[in-house]
Write a structure and sequence with these properties.
By secondary structure, the chain is an all-alpha fold. 74% of the residues lie in helices and 0% in strands. The chain is built from eight helices and no strands. The longest helix is centred in the middle third of the chain and has 32 residues. It is globular and about 50 Å long. The termini are far apart.
Length: 240
């Protein structure tokens, strides 16, 4: 078994040397490339978010994680996934933590959204590059583009942030690692705009805490994917 002392420390400078370039990449692609592609082709920006984010942001996160593991002298194997990346069997305790996290994040994010509406009035919670109308006949094919993007989104973030980086941050910051981790993950989403970023804060910090507390990266997948996927489907069909 890989022990905590065998995992290389990832301190503040090392962590933000990854978070900051990732945030800049996200900002540049969403502010410049996606609008350009949409104007040039006449297609919806959400289509290019799926393509550009999947291949240009989340796939590079996976590659970054693999390079970091290679630097540690670790090859991907079943043992690596379980012991180093902490994708362990899901226990009843994990299910309870994930369920509690989903409920708490849903409640807190909902309260934040309502609070913002009271303070600044009704606004679009989604950034421009993610905005789209509920799907209509002739547009359902977007779901076929969304699904592989969604897989890359969840795998890319959970593999790098929770699997590769968080255990190393725990060596550096101990029980407070989830706070540093949450700030870095939030910085990555700065391109989303301050309204959506504030709404995401419960997920960002609660998920980081739960994954560190349970030492199981699958909880991150459940929380992230469980909120991201169903909410998108609900928007697609005009349910929210």
């Amino acid at each position: 078994m890989i022990t905590k002392t065998e995992i290389k420390k990832l301190g503040f400078i090392g962590s933000f040397a990854i978070y900051i370039p990732a945030a800049i990449l996200m900002y540049g692609l969403t502010k410049y490339l996606i609008p350009f592609l949409s104007r040039t082709t006449g297609q919806e920006t959400i289509l290019f978010w799926f393509i550009v984010a999947g291949l240009g942001i989340f796939l590079p996160l996976i590659i970054t994680g693999l390079l970091m593991l290679r630097y540690e002298g670790i090859r991907i194997s079943k043992r690596t996934l379980i012991e180093r990346l902490r994708f362990r069997n899901i226990s009843k305790r994990d299910i309870l933590w994930s369920f509690a996290g989903l409920v708490l994040v849903g409640l807190l994010s909902g309260l934040i959204m309502k609070g913002l509406e009271l303070l600044i009035g009704t606004f679009d919670h989604s950034p421009a590059f993610m905005s789209f109308e509920p799907l209509t006949k002739g547009r359902y094919w977007l779901l076929l583009v969304w699904f592989p993007y969604w897989i890359l989104n969840i795998i890319g973030e959970e593999f790098l942030w929770r699997g590769v980086m968080l255990p190393r941050q725990e060596v550096a910051f101990g029980r407070h690692a989830w706070i540093i981790h949450g700030f870095g993950w939030g910085l990555f989403h700065i391109a989303f705009g301050w309204q959506l970023l504030i709404t995401l804060l419960p997920l960002i910090f609660i998920q980081s805490y739960i994954v560190q507390r349970t030492k199981n990266s699958w909880n991150g997948v459940i929380l992230h994917g469980g909120l991201n996927g169903p909410s998108f489907i609900a928007i697609c069909f005009g349910l929210i």
